[in-house]
Design brief:
Length: 154
């Protein structure tokens, strides 16, 4: 949840933190996170049977504290079967900031902006503190530009 709040602060989006917890997974302006565990569900026509499988999976995950205790985002990304690390650069920036690694977060942002990291996905927004241009608008900035601004202000 800390990542969501930090993401919304970086993008200068007000009000999302007041929405229901379910919004944090399905809402707009969330960043990708790799799955910690997975289960192949048996296709069934019964919603009750599918719900039962989902509850069983949730109980199983709840019974695995090691999934959460020793969580290291870099290790989880490296072990992901799809191996699409470009999906997680925004998440890595947020993770580094939350862990106190501001310099590492700055470095990721700089590497993305310089084209040194493959980044096919980024959110964008405006910097509400930036002065308006001659047309009365503010330019759209990508997440990594906004993260560098956020780091300089906080």
């Amino acid at each position: 949840m800390a990542w969501d709040d930090l993401l919304w602060s970086t993008l200068q989006i007000d009000g999302n933190e007041k929405l229901p917890a379910s919004f944090r997974f399905t809402g707009a302006f969330t960043c990708d996170t790799p799955a910690l565990d997975h289960m192949d569900f048996v296709r069934t026509s019964s919603p009750e049977a599918l719900a039962s499988q989902m509850l069983s999976f949730a109980r199983n995950c709840h019974g695995k504290p090691a999934l959460w205790k020793d969580y290291d985002l870099n290790d989880v990304i490296a072990a992901e079967p799809r191996h699409e690390p470009y999906r997680y650069h925004q998440t890595c920036v947020l993770d580094r900031i939350c862990a106190g690694g501001r310099q590492a977060a700055q470095m990721i942002c700089s590497d993305v902006l310089a084209g040194a990291l493959d980044c096919r996905i980024t959110l964008s927004a405006i910097d509400k503190q930036m002065p308006l241009d001659a047309t009365g608008r503010r330019p759209s900035l990508n997440f990594f530009e906004l993260a560098k601004i956020w780091l300089s202000r906080n």
